[in-house]
Amino acid sequence: MSLQLVVIGCGSATPAGNRISSSFALKKGNEVFLIDCSEGSQMRLKPYGIRMNKISRIFISHLHGDHYFGLVGLLSTFHLFGRKDELHVYGHSLLKEIIDIQMKVGNTSLSYPLHFHEIEAEKNALIYEDDAMTIETFPLIHSIPTNGFLFKEKGRPLNLKKDFVKTYNPSVDCMQSIKEGNDFMDSDGHVLLHKEITEPSSFKPKIFAYCSDTVYTETIIPYIKGADLLYHEATFMDDMLYAAKDKLHATASQAARIAATAEVKALLIGHYSARYASIDPLLEEAKRFFPNTIAAEEGLVIEV
Amino acid sequence: MSLQLVVIGCGSATPAGNRISSSFALKKGNEVFLIDCSEGSQMRLKPYGIRMNKISRIFISHLHGDHYFGLVGLLSTFHLFGRKDELHVYGHSLLKEIIDIQMKVGNTSLSYPLHFHEIEAEKNALIYEDDAMTIETFPLIHSIPTNGFLFKEKGRPLNLKKDFVKTYNPSVDCMQSIKEGNDFMDSDGHVLLHKEITEPSSFKPKIFAYCSDTVYTETIIPYIKGADLLYHEATFMDDMLYAAKDKLHATASQAARIAATAEVKALLIGHYSARYASIDPLLEEAKRFFPNTIAAEEGLVIEV
Question: Is A66 one of the annotated active-site residues of the chain?
C-alpha cells in the first residue's frame, strides 16, 4: 500500500480556462479520500482514474466556494447511482446545514449513510485513526476559519526473520505472539530472544500535509514538520505580496520557505490565481527557495 | 433584435461524459437570460460565446440539483469579478435560503445588487415585462414544485410610411404622436389620416417556451400553444415509459406529441438520461410524431 495523490483541480477562486478550483484525491490501497471538492470535480473523477465508489471520506478545509461547490453535486450523484456504502464528510459545522437544506429542497433521502464530522477551526485534533493511519486537522490562517489536514501512515510491526520462520515453521498464533514482543521457545525448551528473531519492517510510513488557503505563517511548522509531501497554496508570486497579505493567501516563494523551514521532502504548489495562464514562473520562484517543488496541474499523479 | 437560444447543458440528473445537466442561455439583443444553471455551467459560458456581464436574469425551474447546482458558483464568480450591475434571480422561495447561507459562510457581501423574485409553484404568472417582451411562468408536473417559463416578444408599433417621412420630414415628437395613433396635419392645415401614413411593422415577435422537467401533461398546452420554439424534456424513450411515469419525466415521443398538439413551430428536446450515449434514437422517436424536432447538444445555437 502506498499513498498516491491525484490533482483534480488546482485553480483558485474562479475557474479559469480548463482549470477548476481546489480538489484532490488521496488514494490509499482500496480507499480514496477527497480533499476539498470544487465545482466540476465529479466530472473529472472518471477521466483521472478515480473510482467514485472507492471514495470513503471527504475533507473540506473551509467554506469558500472554490473548495466545496462541487460537494453537494457529488453527494447527489452518489445517491442517484444507488450508493450503499457509508460516507464520511469532515468540515465546519455550517457545511452540514448547507448539505441538509439542499437535500431537503430536492426531497432527497440519501441512499447511503452520510456521517458528518464537525471539525473545529483553530484546533489541532485527531479526526480519524485506523490500524494503518491517522488523520489530523490543524489550523491555518485565512479570512474565514480554515483547517489543514495531515495524513500519516503508521509504522509496521517488526518482521520475523526469514531464516527463523524456515527453520522453526511457527504457527500463526506463535508469530502473532512474537510480533507482540515475546520471545520464542522451541520444542526442546530452548529460548530464542525476540530481538534475535525479528528485524524492522522495510515499510516506510509516509506523511502528506495539506494546507489549502493560508497566509504565510510559521505556526503550521510543528504540524507539517518532516512531511514526505507538503501541499501549500501559492496563489500569487512575490510581486503580488501585498495582495497576498491583504487576501490572506501566500506566494510561491512563501510556500517554498515554509517547505524549507519544515524540512519536508517535497513541496506541491497550487491554488494559482486566474491571472497566471502559465504556472512556470510560480514554479521557478518556489524552486529558488525549495528545489524539490512540484507545480500542481490537473490530472497529475504523485507518489507521496 | 432576435431571440437566440444557446444550449449550455442538456443532460439529466448526473453529468455523463462531456454532457452536463440542464442549462440554457437566451440571448435577446444586449441581454442574456440564463434558464436553469447546472454544475459546470459557468465554465462553458466563454467557450459558447456568452458574455458573463451580459447575464441580467436567471430563471431556475425547480430545486433538483441538476437544474441549479451551478448557480451559487456563478453568483460568486460575478462577485469576484467585481460585477456592479444588478442581477435578477427567479426561483422558488427556498432557493434564496440556499444562496444566502452559502454567501454567509463565505463571509461574502456581494459586489452587486441581487434581486430575488420568488415564483409560486402551480401558478401561471407574469414575472417580467418591458417594452419588448413579457416573461411568464406556468406550472409543470414533476416530483417537486416545478415551473416552466414563457418568453414572449411583443409586437412592434406600426411604421410610418417612407414616402410620408420623405415628403413631410416630421419631427420626432410628431412621429411619436402618429405612432400613438394620431392623424397628421401639415403646415397648410391638411389632415392625413393615421391609417394612410402608417403600415404594419415587418417584425415578427417570437415565443420561446421552456418545459424543464415534467411528466406528459396536456395541462401545459394553453401556455405553450403556437410557440416558435418549445423546449420540452425527453429524459427517456418510449421503451422506458414506465420509468418516465414513475419519475415524472417524459419520453421523446411524448414531448413530440405535446409539440404537435400545441402546434408549435419547432421542438427542442433534451434532459437525456445518462443511459443514452447517442441521442439519435431519441431524435428519431420524436420526429415520428413531430418532424421539426431538434436534439439539444452542448454549444448548439438556435434562432427562435
Answer: yes
